[in-house]
Amino acid sequence: MASNLKVIFLFLWLLQCGGGIVDVQQKPPIQVALLKEGISIPCEVIFPYMPKYTKFSIFYYWINSLGEKTSIYSRSENVAIPSGKENKTATLSYNHRIMPLENTSTGTYYCEVKWNGIQKMGKGVFVLARGTGYAETSYGWEILITLTTLLAVLSITTTALLLWKRKVLCPRRNQLNILRQKVETQPPSASPPPPPPVYDCLDLQQVDVYSILENNTNNPSPRKSPPGKTPKKPATLEESSDTLYENI
Questions:
Q1: Average of pLDDT values for 85-97?
Q2: Distance (Å) of CA 187 to CA 71, 180, 181, 182, 183
């Protein structure tokens, strides 16, 4: 039982000594850099404030698209332990700036940290080197100018159509109004006088006879026929006229 406990404690001690509490991080994993501006290679070192881990060396190198490794820079650090922070974890940034870049600078950049018997390497940062940045286009101004031109053309066309319509339709309306005014202002035509009666050319005695005949014709008086005799039919207007003309 005691031997088993010794093995467990030994294993934990080996893990601690083997660097289980140290690490190297590189963020963000992808960057785009301009040739004139350069790039800063991120490198964060995580270690405890212990004399064994406060001394380390940092190495920066680059692996191109062909897999070739090129050393860029190296430095040694000896961090002082602040009072009251012994055995506490520290995270310090050791970024390295490269300027200027070249057209062939595209690749993955790594940061590696070495302690006494411990070695940690970051996951790397892929850098895309470009000669020029994003060129802002003038699409906004072009769209604004195009819309303004279209609105102006539409306004001019609408105005021309309204003027043409007014020029074509207004004369017709004016002619109709003039004709209507003429008809309204024209005095009503005098009705022709009634034709003179037929008997205007007759003498006085002839007029009296004709009037009596006309009254008898319009209002015939009913007469009782004597018994045994059929009533005579009243004389028609034509027979009376014939009689009148014979008398005349």
A1: 92
A2: 118, 13, 12, 10, 9
